[in-house]
Design brief:
By secondary structure, this protein is mostly helical. Helices cover 55% and strands 1% of the residues.
């Protein structure tokens, strides 16, 4: 959708930032208007309905690209991003600090230059769990398979520029899973209780949406089960709603409006209120430059972190039925603003700042699931794969294969239940079918 903004005219946007190589990334001006590039326009992508494999690749590659673009400006405000990069970010850029290894000792990570972050590491780890189990997942699968994956197998970690255990890169809210399940032997269904409430579980739930493609309610329920091992309250709720949004985006003919409608139909409490508030505002804009401040103002009453992202308020990240994570509502808002154009949607998410790697991970996954991998600019995905030393397509292909297997099992289970219920209910069931 491309509604006309109802706000007063904004001043001319600042110039575009340069890419890591020093050349301005092509494909969009800094106001969000599409100009050129390899990513297909929405109208072109609509000409052929993407296959399951193309949607899975779109979601996972799109999430990784959003993650890599947002990583170097994570934690900063839109104004600070402009000051650092000389304009809005338009593609892959370098680290915020040149001396990234020592600038922030708590996070000595090489964010930027096409490196994915823990969002993608966790997403790919969850795909590996699906490959192992080859069925729907729950909290016990996190304990049985995800935790051993995080703490047992060294992998290339782009931000560390070395092989290491994923456990050594994921941050505190994700380390909680290992502490609670492996060392604390907590009931996996309740292990998320007590963790700081944030987007840590939601950020890697795109695979759950793909496994339940076209069935948002099933994706929501499965993600809530999986995320129970990691998060509680609105952090867990966001995981369910994000998975539902990805599943909704896979439906043939899906639009930004239909995805938001499906999300609102399932979301509860503060998460629902935050999504509704942000998306109501987002519907007034069709360029991210004008939408950055209004979207922040819309989500602020539900966000517990406060105005200074790196200095959270005393009430930050505590359980509440009144609040929401910031990332998911803003990602859905940018989906509306960008009209499901990958560049506009993801660049809006990146330039929003704050936890923008996770915002762009989510909006990239939803847009990619809706339009397929062809919508993801190839120059971005190729460079992210090269810089991160990752095959971005292999996890998607594996997940699509597993998804087909799971659907076959679901069909067998449904038929078995139909037969059992018919036998239980006798003629009553047949009569009810006839009346329907």
């Amino acid at each position: 959708m491309t509604p006309t903004p109802t706000s007063t005219p904004h001043p001319a946007p600042p110039p575009a930032a340069e890419s890591a190589s020093g050349a301005q990334a092509s494909g969009e001006d800094s106001s969000g208007g599409h100009t050129s590039g390899t990513g297909a326009s929405p109208s072109a992508a609509d000409a052929a309905t993407p296959t399951l494999e193309e949607r899975a690749a779109g979601a996972l590659v799109g999430a990784a690209v959003g993650d890599a673009l947002g990583g170097p400006v994570e934690g900063w405000s839109p104004e600070q991003i402009v000051e650092r990069h000389g304009g809005r970010v338009q593609g892959i850029v370098g680290p915020f600090y040149e001396d990234w290894r020592h600038a922030r000792p708590i996070a000595p990570y090489h964010k930027g230059d096409g490196h994915v972050t823990d969002d993608t590491l966790m997403t790919h780890a969850l795909v590996r769990v699906y490959e192992t189990v080859r069925d729907h997942l729950g909290a016990y699968d996190v304990a049985a398979h995800l935790v051993p994956d995080l703490m047992g197998t060294p992998r290339w970690i782009p931000e560390l520029e070395a092989e290491a255990l994923p456990l050594q890169r994921i941050f505190l809210a994700e380390k909680w899973i290992v502490a609670r399940l492996h060392y604390g032997h907590a009931d996996p269904r309740e292990a998320g209780v007590g963790n700081i409430v944030n987007c840590g579980a939601a950020m890697y739930m795109a695979p759950v949406g793909i496994v339940n493609a076209g069935h948002p309610a099933a994706a929501y329920a499965e993600a809530l089960d999986v995320a129970g091992a990691h998060q509680s309250s609105y952090g867990r709720e966001a995981a369910g709603v994000f998975a539902a949004a990805v599943a909704s985006a896979c439906s043939p003919g899906a639009t930004p409006d239909s995805v938001v409608a499906d999300a609102l139909a399932l979301a509860k409490d503060g998460t629902r209120e935050a999504v509704a508030a942000v998306c109501e505002v987002a519907a007034r804009y069709d360029d991210f430059e004008s939408a950055l401040t209004p979207l922040r103002e819309a989500v602020a009453p539900y966000d517990t972190v406060g105005p200074e992202y790196r200095s959270p308020s005393l009430g930050a990240r505590r359980p509440s039925r009144l609040h929401s994570i910031e990332e998911l509502p803003v990602a859905l808002g940018m989906l509306l603003v960008g009209g499901a154009d990958f560049r506009r949607t993801v660049l809006g998410s990146v330039n929003y700042g704050r936890d923008c790697d996770s915002i762009a991970t989510m909006s990239g996954a939803i847009t990619g699931a809706m339009r397929g991998v062809a919508a993801v600019p190839e120059e971005w995905s190729t460079e992210v794969a090269r810089a991160s030393r990752l095959d971005l397509h292999a996890p998607a292909a594996a997940l699509a294969c597993v998804t087909r297997e799971i659907f076959g099992r679901d069909r067998e289970r449904r038929r078995a239940h139909e037969a059992a219920f018919t036998a239980i209910a006798g003629d009553t069931a047949d009569a009810a079918d006839g009346e329907a």
